[in-house]
Amino acid sequence: MADSDSNPPPPPVTVTVTHSETANPDVPALALATEAEPLRDNTAKDLPPSPPLPQPEQPAPEEDTSAPEAVQADTCQPEQEKDVVAVAEQNPNPTPQEQERSDKLPQNLVSFKEESNRVSDLSDSEKASLEEFKKLLADSIKEDVSIWGVPLLKDERTDVILLKFLRARDFKVKDAFAMINNTLRWRKDFNIDALLDEDLGDDMDKVVFMHGHSREGHPVCYNVYGEFQNKDLYDKTFSTEEKRNNFLRWRIQFLERSIRKLDFTPGGINTIFQVNDLKNSPGPAKRELRLATKQALQLLQDNYPEFVAKQVFINAPWWYLAFYTMISPFMTQRTKSKLVFAGPSRSPDILFKYISPEQVPIQYGGLSVDFCDCNPDFSMSDPVTEIPLKPTTKQTVEIAIYEKCIIVWELRVVGWEVSYSAEFKPDAKDGYAVIIQKATKMSPTDEPVVSNSFKVSDLGKLLLTIDNSTLKKKRLLYRFKIKPYSD
């Protein structure tokens, strides 16, 4: 038998990727000079969720009003000094009164950074409050008690739990102690442990679902308000007090199951990133929805402190921004700092700031499939490359391949309205270029993601070209994978 070292495996395929950008000569230069600068990301602060699916947050005004005004924010702050506070598009035809109110909207707000849950990072006064809190709890608890799967006073995870209650009450120990006692009593009365195992159906699977993680590792929860435009689902969920109570039980069950997957060790990820899709939201006119929201919001505020890392509201209509503007003066700066808003055209950009595209569902501009495995070649573990597409320019992704292989790729431009082509150019001088995809104008109604593959038998380059002839800045997302060559 030959020595195994005499027949080593072939070297791995080597791929070199380059990007090139060229101006589109068909568009006059004057058009670029007259185009309005796109809205910049802005840093906003915290508002409690008012629409249908309330999220755990700290106490805040529960007004349910709206006003006919739009919000536009901008800032000259350096990028590294600000967090994104997205803005919804303006009302396209504002009245003079609406424009005047819009001009008075607050602009820059302080960014929020999640506090450390390590005792060593606390101030002396915070450490003292934590120790006092633990002593009060130890003196009052006469039996083993667990909350969110964590047995209290048994290990260091207790510190993380207690810090949530302390921060919810500004480190006022007696207030935090009263809050946790009320929470423990409510959990017992609500029979949370039994609720976890109940079968409450799957009607809400597309209304609220977990999918992927943020760039900082927080699990992401999507709340899709527009699903309640379905009259059958709405009536089944909210039409009677009994149905609203069932909805509340389902929402608490979903939250409890999600929380028990968090890491309560010091330094662990123990908060959730919330994405609230307001597209086609029923709005404040639905009385039954308001009642269910108010009840759920109160329970979440009272019994689930400090579980939201960030609240991002996408596809926000102008009236929602007006509502936020009205109540924001009554909120704490800390609460406001967790909130981010984006209108429809800005929503993908805002999501990508916090969540990488491979983790964002296709319906929200990313490349991740949430309800099926439609493309088995890629998963959320396969990173996506993002390239900005300037107005009236062509962008070419050049992938140089040095071994025989099969290359598979997928790409998208959110909203399309660009031309896309793909070809393979061999390195050999007498080789012929292979047109894989002739230049095709892609419209917003086309499939959001283009997938393709090519068998590389000769060394050469794969060229993926996007021609953005519009006056809008866009974003190209793509990824590729090399598979073994087979005859």
TrEMBL record:
One of the entry's Gene Ontology molecular-function terms is:
lipid binding
What's the protein called, per UniProt?
CRAL-TRIO domain-containing protein
Every copy of the CRAL-TRIO domain together lies at 197-366
Q: Where in the cell is it found?
A: Cytoplasm; Membrane
Q: Which family does it belong to?
A: Belongs to the patellin family.
From what organism does this protein derive? Arachis hypogaea
For the biological process aspect of GO, one term held by this record is: cell division
A cellular component term, taken from the record's GO annotations: membrane
Q: Which Pfam families match?
A: CRAL_TRIO, CRAL_TRIO_N, GOLD_PATL1_C
The upper taxonomy is:
Eukaryota, Viridiplantae, Streptophyta, Embryophyta, Tracheophyta
UniProt-listed InterPro entries: CRAL-TRIO_dom, CRAL-TRIO_dom_sf, CRAL/TRIO_N_dom, CRAL/TRIO_N_dom_sf, GOLD_dom, PATL, PATL1-6_C_GOLD
Q: How does it sit in the membrane?
A: Peripheral membrane protein
- Which first-to-last residue range defines the signal peptide? none
Domain annotation GOLD: ranges: 377-482
Location (main, coarse): cytoplasm
Q: Where is this region: Disordered?
A: 1-82
In terms of superkingdom, the source organism counts as Eukaryota
Which UniProt keywords are present, listed alphabetically? Cell cycle, Cell division, Cytoplasm, Lipid-binding, Membrane, Transport
Keyword Cell cycle applies: yes
Q: Residue ranges under compositional bias (Pro residues)?
A: 48-59
